[in-house]
Specification:
18% strand; 24% helix; four-stranded antiparallel sheet
């Protein structure tokens, strides 16, 4: 999920593209909805500017005047029209800049340039959203940015320690965006691991004795939040955040930077919100573990067991042998009895009626010989071929009426009547 550093670099990328291109049109991939409302902007030339705060980006549309308008209004100062939207990335949102005929799939919001390029907001899971507003989210939803508003962030957290939310473990409080607006799952793991803090310790006990300011040499947890976020922002070619040219770099740089999150040998557990918390092995005892951290030898043994299981599953099923009597003669000329396989089971013989020539004779046959017996059925001469079906009480009533009306001739069809007593049968209309 994109977190504070990723959105900060996304805003930087937007400003980098907007400084080199002029836009002419705004498009939506789908019909407008509550999550993706229509943007009321129809200016033929405009520019874009992005600003990040926590996990939000505010995009500003500004009108760019034409040359004729500038020449005609030299004496008057031109005041451009503006419009702001507030954008969140959701679980998988990102920005992309491509040619107009090479737009990526799931581009929900597109800005076309005058030189046939498109800057688009791509969201494969469609969790991202935007709203038309000039302001940021209220403080009860998102607090000050740890990256750009560190002093306000520190003051806001230390002044709110009397709130009941700080009775929770520190790993859960760090996901509260109204206090830690930039922090996500991998950032909280890295911050707590570097300070050797128990993630399930009460947040108030961790934060209550902190001073108003912290030194760079010995940072506390609030200062470490600011420091770790800027480390991710300054990573180059990490693959996790955006590069300045909009192309994803080598993800190995980001993996080398990680010290705890999804690192082999580290412990993990599931918090009350159902998210995986990575930490040192000495913490989280008694908690449910979601991801296993087995050694290489154990993993190899498990792979061998899986291969054996797959072989058993893919092997053809053994079919029980069916013993069939046949004439076998050995070298001496005596008749040999066929050997039964170990897996074959003896089946009890059952009496079967032989009706081949009209005589009913009970014989006992082995079930293995039943497939060689041909049963012939001769039709009864008294059977006229008609199929007698069970009739409902309503049809029986109609038959009785037919007998009364037509002298009891059963060969004629029955009279069918509806609820009103009218004849509905096609033979009597």
């Amino acid at each position: 999920m994109p977190e504070g550093p990723e959105l900060y670099k996304a805003a930087t990328f937007l400003n980098h593209i907007a400084s080199q291109h002029i836009f002419k049109k705004v498009r939506l991939l789908q019909k407008p909805s509550d999550k993706h409302p229509k943007i009321p902007w129809s200016k033929p030339r405009f520019s874009l500017a992005g600003e990040a705060r926590g996990k939000e980006i505010r995009i500003t549309f500004s009108e760019v005047p034409l040359k004729d308008e500038v020449d005609s209004k030299k004496d008057t100062k031109f005041v451009p029209e503006t419009l702001n939207i507030l954008l969140t990335f959701g679980m998988a949102g990102r920005f992309a800049f491509t040619k107009t005929d090479e737009i990526q799939k799931h581009s929900l919001l597109m800005f076309d340039t005058i030189d046939d390029h498109t800057f688009s907001f791509v969201d494969t899971r469609h969790f991202g959203r935007w709203i038309l507003t000039d302001e940021w989210s209220p403080p009860n939803k998102r607090g000050p940015s740890i990256i750009t508003e560190y002093d306000l962030f520190r003051e806001h957290v230390l002044s709110s320690l009397d709130k009941p939310v700080f009775d929770k473990p520190i790993c859960e409080v760090m996901l509260e965006q109204r206090y830690f607006s930039c922090i996500g799952n991998y950032l909280r793991a890295e911050i707590l691991y570097r300070l050797d803090i128990d993630p399930y310790k009460s947040a108030r006990k961790v934060l209550e004795n902190l001073p108003e300011k912290s030194s760079e040499e010995n940072p506390d947890i609030l200062k470490m939040c600011h420091k770790v976020c800027w480390e991710v922002v300054n990573l180059k070619g990490s693959g996790k955040p955006y590069d300045p040219d909009g192309i994803y770099g080598d993800h190995g740089v980001f993996e080398e930077w990680l010290q705890c999150y999804m690192v082999e040998g580290m412990g993990n557990s599931v918090d009350k919100k159902g998210r995986t918390m990575w930490h040192s092995n000495k913490f989280g005892k008694g908690k449910h573990q979601r991801h296993s951290t087995k050694s290489a030898d154990k993993s190899e043994k498990s792979n061998v067991k899986r291969k054996r299981r797959s072989k058993k599953k893919n092997s053809p099923k053994l079919v029980e042998d069916v013993t069939v009597k046949s004439e076998l003669v050995d070298n001496t000329g005596e008749e040999m009895k066929p050997k039964q396989s170990k897996r074959s089971k003896k089946v009890k013989s059952e009496p079967v009626e032989d009706v081949t020539e009209g005589a009913r004779v009970k014989t006992e046959l082995d079930l293995s010989e039943m497939r060689d017996v041909k049963i012939k059925l001769e039709p009864d001469e008294s059977f006229d071929g008609r199929v007698i079906k069970r009739r409902s009480t309503r049809l029986k009533k109609n038959v009785n009426e037919n007998k009364e009306n037509f002298g009891g001739d059963e060969n004629k069809p029955a009279v069918r009547r509806n609820r009103r007593g009218e004849i509905t049968s096609p033979y009597f209309r």
